[in-house]
Amino acid sequence: MVKVVRSTILKAPIEAVWEILRDFNGHDRWHPAVASSQIERSREADRIGCIRRFKLTDGAELREQLLALSDADTAYTYCLLDTPIPLLNYVSHVQLIPVTDLDHTFWRCEGSFDAPAARCEDLVQMVARDIYDAGFGAIRAELGLEG
Question: The whole model's pTM is what?
Answer without folding.
Answer: 0.94
